[in-house]
Fold this protein.
Amino acid sequence: MTAELIRGQNHPLSQVRLEVRISAGTPIVAGATVGDEQGRILGVEWVAHPGAPTLPGLEVSRQAAADHRLAVDLGAMPESVHRISVLIALPSGVGGPVRFGAVAAPVAAVTGLDGAEAASYTITGLETESAVVALELYRRQDAWKVRAIGQGYAGGLAELLTDQGLPEARQLADTINEAVSRSHSRSVAPPPPRTPDGDRTRRTASSPATAQSTSPYAAQGPQDTPTPGAPEQQAGSVVQGGQGTGSAQPASPYEVQDPQNTPAQADPPGTPQPSAPGPGSPIDYSHPNRRTAAPPPAPPTAPPAGSGQAARPVAGDATGWSMDERLYNQVWGMFEDLARSVAAYRSAVDFADSRLEKEIDMALADPRSRVGGRGEAAREAARAKQAQLVDQARAALDRDLSQLTAEAEVVEPALPLSYARWDNPVWHGYRVPMEMPMALRLGDLRLPESSELSIPMLVRLPLERGLWIDSGGESLDGSLLDSDELRRLAVDTAVTHAARLLAVHPAGEFAVHVIDPAGAGATALAPLVRTGVLAGPPAAGAAGVADVLSRLTQRVDLVQMAVRGGAADSLPPDLDTAQQLLIVNDFPHGFDDRAVTQLRYLADEGPSVGVHLMMIADREDAAAYGPLLDPLWRSLMRLTPVPDDHLADPWVGHAWTYEPSVVPRGSQVLQQVLSQVAEARRSWNR
């Protein structure tokens, strides 16, 4: 089964003879650098590139191409080699695109010699970059892993190689570009688009975005320009945010865009992506981790023939093997529909504004029309045309919003427990589930043009990356918030997320640990403590921090060794096999250097073996650590306790306003749910 990676995520490799396959939809250069345990390149002779394509255990392509296969034999690597960085770059001086933001998102996959994929990674979020570190193969405790990097460089290969520690970076970059220029006449052209397999489209009868739009302008800005001949990615690819080249559905569709959590040009969850569909085009609507077509849902109720009305929306009107999966896919489709509709509206408005400026400039260029009634009439005519275009675009958007709102009104009440808002009546009939759900609701997403319409923010389970509840920052209008109030809200938000995670898992399948070194979150954490759902009392002081971190890191090590050795039955009988969530409040208070290292290890290695992290922290409080903690922040999905526009969709990169999931004021639903979870936990332990 292919592991679909997001930025910063890693995956173990079970074979030593591998291929790294790169697909970009446009000719690119592929290479690799070999480094030691600290990541330092051993010298220019340890860079594989078109001018010197072979190294011990490594061979790369000799020319620019849209598709590459890099041969890797990890068993042939010298003992001093601990890291292999796979590089891609747009060739310079040979024409073609000069930045990755103008082409389809590159896809990197690690496969065995039989072609079976071990892991794949779609490099999204690129804009002005012309060179990227795509993947890293690294040695850890005599075993090899692959990590999704996606670190981009606007300065091209020279800047990339300089960052890798090569003093001769500029000369080597020139050598590579010269080698590519010599072989450019033999470059491989992009392959034609693949035909989608199976039934992978959302039903047009209830899809607002697939209805014909009257807006004549496609949402194809500089970050969303379709590339002729770009390959379409197979269903199942993962996108973690990005800019405008669209894709098959990611495991997590949200990417942090806040400058405090910008991914290392390297989260969420989920590939060359199809560009904004034209009128009447089908939308790729496959389930992100399923590669076979699901049984089609029941047909929606159609209006009378010739009525001119849109089909009435139906909850679960999407492909899927279960109603939960259909609803998940339907919510995903609504998210994509709204993103594309707003993109089309913004594009039309931009066109109208640019046309207005052009026509006014033309009028002013004629000396006879600069003054007097003739000039004013020309300007008024230009303004009238601009207003007409904007009104047409707004009418098309309002129509789409009306259809989406009608669909949301049907879908929201039908959502299962794990997808539902806290004010949904489904919570009042809560019973501890027998099976783990496929996804979890973390809040809602809105766009400025659709303030009355919100889309549930769903993430796949088990969590592929940790959560960071940001307890510092500003409000949407830029005003500073009271720091104490913001910290309290952050802990409240963490408790709400933890309660939902506990509620949607079967009894005994999810355990929560809390680190609160100074007891600053005692009041907000009271519902978890009072009901007895925690695995133990919140850890306090440096000793408590060290104890919890040591136990969880030991668990990660034990499970990793058992899995790697194929001896899961050899785990200690007292090991808790449930999914584990560690909530850390007030970081880095109470953390020494060893504890910080252990926390980074849990964030990096924990999710693959069922140990997840939820941080409640203000990044400024940890500023003393400098860049040491940058990988930690990048590995976590940033959420906020107040509305904040820091998340982006993977199609056009809109800045979506995230609104946290909140329990209604005065409601006892959280207490009631946690009490049932605690009772089920006690019964399970007996």
Remarks:
- The two ends are 37 Å apart (CA to CA).
- Residues 184-251, 258-296, 298-302 have pLDDT under 50 and may be disordered.
- The first strand starts at residue 3 and ends at 5.
